[in-house]
Amino acid sequence: MDSRCFRVNAPSVIYEQFDGELVAIHLDTGAYHSLQGAGADAFLLLTEEATVNELGEALESKYAASVDQISQGLVPFLAALEAEKLITTVEVRRPRDPLRLPVNGAKLPFQAPSLEAYHDLQSLFLLDPVHEVGEQGWPAALEAKPNPVPDEDGARG
Amino acid sequence: MKAFAQLMESYFQESASVNGEACRRFEIAGTSVSLKSSGGWLSEMTPALSHLEVGSDGADAAGLTVMMWDGGQEPRNHLLRAYLFALTNWWFSYTGPRGELLDIHSESMTATYHPGTETLSLVDLERHKAFYWKRDTSPLPYYEKCSPFRSLLHSWMRSEGRYFVHGAAVGYPNGGVLLVGKGGSGKSTSALCCLEAGMHYAGDDYCILRDNSAGGYDAHSLYCTAKLVSMGDLKSFPAMSRHVVNEEREPGEKVAISLADYKTEQLIDHFPLRAVLVPMITHGAETKIVPCSARQAMMAIAPSSLAQLPASGKQDLEFLGRLARGIPCYQLLLGTGLEQIPEKIAELLRTLGVTDQCGVTAGARN
């Protein structure tokens, strides 16, 4: 099992939480993400630095699965977070209390978390933010440009 | 870094002493903004703000003073001259991924360079002064003139508890909706349909939001321009064709429309926000409005708002999150009949207790 410690890549990554769901935005890459269930919980725990085992132990108090099952389910999720640069490894850990999740009532079924990633923000920089429809007019939407041409509406040259 | 702002102010005064100075004052989202220019930039940059103009007197100490000029005349200070030369030629070495000036940008002084328009936007939040400098005397692109000063106005407004949002706002004086989503989702067309049907209109690309005294949110008008991607799209709004401001367009340039002289009685400074709508083109026959979660609304509103404002960050996201949690959010499922859009929005507003004061009727276009 991966023994590395991770933390949320702040301040480049910002997020907001909504009733167990979470929206995260990476300000430097322009990617934005949606996380739900155990994924949202794990992400919030990562704001305080954690290894995969520590995450598994904390999530076990809320989800009906063993620490091992949860930790196994978290491995690809953490890899996805790392690939999206939403988390970074911690070389020197800071002292903190054991991770805890607020728990109410019975344990919830555990589903291995997944990360929904959206990379269309770069094109939002480039495209007209006001009215993106095709040349034939409403309601046909403008097709995404595979290689956006810079220098319009916020384009970086 | 205050020294940099002071050097820029001296540079503006040098330019003004040679090219003359003009000033106009605007009331934007309840704050006073004075725009001063050296040269003829004011007439180019202010039509989109003309509906908010309140006079041509000087700076208001309580508000923001924006100084605008170009690099037609070099600064006397050799350090500033060297820095601006280096910045404009090798901007990628001096800026972060979002255009922020690496050595200058901070919480009290936002500084961004836009290589597409070759403009530097600097806001000294402590001294209430902002600077908008263009590298040369060439014309600004149409999109910059349609939504001028947005980077520096965003920084200033946020410091005053007001937040930029990429969205359209339409409704009545006692309540309206915010239409949010990325390009292509139908928010601008929806907003323009509502304008044509008789509703009040606060904007169709950017609006400013703030907390109001009733514990809710007000949507404030910012720009009185609209852009359509093609002349084909303009066929849906034939009465607006007389208000196209860029008759001669470069390939790929959008059709820009000035609403400064079009249904001006329907342009509104602000109204209380009663709902957030996330438009979605369905190609179905009927337009419907169905509830959606705060997270769904947030996914539509936050990324596109933050992406286009280089100084945006955590504070903006927190506000937008509070907004999405605080008022009802809906999906606006757009059918092919444009006339249904204002009807459905008016119907929703009525269910939210907003009185229809404009007599919106289907097909009430000019």
Keywords:
A: about 160 residues, alpha+beta, 2 domains, 4-stranded antiparallel beta sheet, two-stranded antiparallel ribbon, 4 helices, B: about 375 residues, Rossmann fold, 5-stranded mixed β-barrel, 11 helices, about 30% strand
List the helices and strands and how they pair.
The complex is a heterodimer of chains A (157) and B (366).
Chain A: E1 6-8, E2 13-18, E3 21-26, E4 32-36, H1 37-46, H2 52-60, H3 67-83, E5 87-89, E6 116-118, H4 121-126
Antiparallel strand pairs in A: 1-5, 2-3, 3-4, 4-6
Helix pairs in contact in A: 2-3
Chain B: H1 2-19, E1 21-28, E2 31-38, H2 41-45, E3 53-55, E4 64-70, H3 78-89, H4 91-94, E5 109-114, E6 119-124, E7 129-134, H5 142-146, H6 150-159, E8 162-172, E9 175-180, H7 187-196, E10 200-203, E11 206-211, E12 217-220, E13 225-228, H8 231-234, E14 255-258, E15 270-281, E16 288-291, H9 294-307, H10 314-326, E17 329-334, H11 340-351
Parallel strand pairs in B: 2-4, 4-7, 9-15, 15-17
Antiparallel strand pairs in B: 1-2, 1-3, 5-6, 6-7, 8-9, 8-10, 8-11, 11-12, 12-15, 13-14, 16-17
- Low-confidence sequence ranges of chain A: 125-157
Alpha-carbon Rg of chain B, integer: 21 Å
CATH class of the largest domain in chain B: Alpha Beta
Number of domains of chain A: 2
Q: What is the succession of H and E elements of chain A? A: EEEEHHHEEH
Largest sheet entry of chain A: 4 strands, antiparallel
Q: What does the overall shape of chain B look like?
A: globular
Topology, number of strands of chain B? 17
Using CB atoms under 8 Å apart, which protein chain pair has the greatest interface? Answer: A-B, 46 and 57 residues
In whole angstroms, the N-to-C terminal distance of chain B is: 53 Å
Task: Name the helicity range of chain A.
Answer: 25-40%
The count of strands of chain A amounts to 6
Q: What is the radius of gyration of chain A? A: 19 Å
Largest sheet of chain B: 7 strands, mixed
Strand order of the largest sheet of chain B: 3-1-2-4-7-6-5
What kind of oligomer do you see?
heterodimer
The number of helices of chain A is: 4
Calculate the mean pLDDT score of chain A and round it.
Answer: 80
